Structure formats: structure tokens, C-alpha cells
Amino acid sequence: GLELSVNNHTADFSLTTRAGPSVSLSCLVENSNQDEELLWYREDGEVDLKDGNKVNVSNICISPVAESDNGVTFTCKLVRDTSVQVSVILDVQFPPELTGEESLQIQEDKDVTLSCNAKSNPQAETAWYKDNETLTLQQDRHQVYLTSEVFQLSIKNVESSDNGTYTCVVKSSLGEGRKDFHLIVEDRTVFPTEAIIAAAVVVALTAFFGIVARRDKIFKV
């Protein structure tokens, strides 16, 4: 009947908390007729415990809880039989953190990618807007890419009509984040072919007439 309990749980469990405040985990030996030494692990790394915090009862504190602690497993084990253990997985919740604005200049016919941080827990809803209206995606020109950390919009062969303000919106039950991208499309640089040809002709004629004007001197030489 020897077993352990962590925060009154005798089986593995998930602990939901918010980023920022501290979290305490208390491991207790149940149904033992002798003193039992305990170990704590964070993932695969052993937690350093003080001597007075190892026998029969052991407490650890995570302070402050960070976003990076989300999904991390803490495990309390019995020293003389490490198969006797209880694990807790931290479910750290935080709202989207997305602010600011960015200006981008892009030439016509080039490709551009707008990228936003999409990290949040619980998972957020995402959307793209253009000039405060829901962006209508064109299958052959627009591509949306979403992972747990990144929300991107790619536009192929940018046109002058793509000028405007694009807004990335990431919204969860804990809050909303948004970022503006001011896209400025520049005219494609076109070389003035006719002007180049005309200039080349002028240079060639100038050189020709210069040679003709000096032909007498050249012949004398």
C-alpha cells in the first residue's frame, strides 16, 4: 500500500496555472511504517533539495512560473524504489503577446512574407485583415502558415493593389494581440530601352563624325 501523493493526487495529473505567480508542489509518503527519502525531478534533471526537505514530505516551489514552463513535467520519486512516483505536468496559460507595427517596402512582382508571434495558451484564433476588413485570400497569390508559435501571410507577385495596412490578429479567451504591417508597393523598375538606344546612337555618331573631321590629320600621319 506504499504510495506517494503530490498536492493530494496519488496518480499523475496536470496542474493549470497562469504565468507569473509561483506554484508549490508538495510530495507526501503514504502508508509507510518507516522514514522514506524522496527525490524531485524536473524533466530528466534532479532538483537540488535541502537536507530537511527530503524525508517523508518534500516541497518545491516554481517561482515565478514562466511561459517556458508550459508542458514541463515534475516528478516525485521514492529513493529506495523509484518506480513509486507521481508526476505533474504544468499547464501554464498566458494570453497572446503581440503588439507594434512594421513598415515594409516591396517592389512589384516580388514576394513578401508577413510574420507574427502566435504563442498563447490556450490556443488562439487567428485572422488577417487588410485596411480593417477581413482579407480575402486568393488561392494563387496568398498563403497562410500557422504553427503554435508563428502566424504568417505570404503574398506572391505583389501588385500595386496590395498597398495597404495588414493586421495580424491573435485572440484567445485570455486576451487579444494584434500587429499592423504597412505594405508599400513600389513600381517595378523598367529600363528605358528607347532612351538607351538613342543615347548609343548619339555616342556612335559623335565618334564617327569626330573621326571624319580628323581624317586629314590621320591620313598625314
UniProtKB/TrEMBL annotation:
Domain of life assignment: Eukaryota
Q: What does the entry list under GO cellular component?
A: cell-cell junction; plasma membrane
Q: Which is an annotated GO molecular function term of this record? A: cell adhesion molecule binding
Task: Look up and give the membrane topology term.
Answer: Single-pass type I membrane protein
Its localization reads: Membrane
The encoding gene is Tmigd1
Signal peptide positions (record): none
The family database entries (PANTHER family) matched by this protein are listed as: NEPHRIN (PTHR11640), V-SET AND IMMUNOGLOBULIN DOMAIN-CONTAINING PROTEIN 10-LIKE 2 (PTHR11640:SF158)
- Locate the transmembrane regions by residue number: 195-213
One BP term from GO: cell-cell adhesion
Please report the stretch or stretches of sequence annotated as the Ig-like domain: 20-87, 96-173
Query: Which controlled-vocabulary keywords does the entry list?
Result: Disulfide bond, Glycoprotein, Immunoglobulin domain, Membrane, Receptor, Repeat, Signal, Transmembrane, Transmembrane helix
For this protein, the record's SUPFAM superfamilies field holds: Immunoglobulin (SSF48726)
Q: What is this protein called?
A: TMIG1 protein
Work out whether the entry's keyword set contains Flavoprotein.
Answer: no
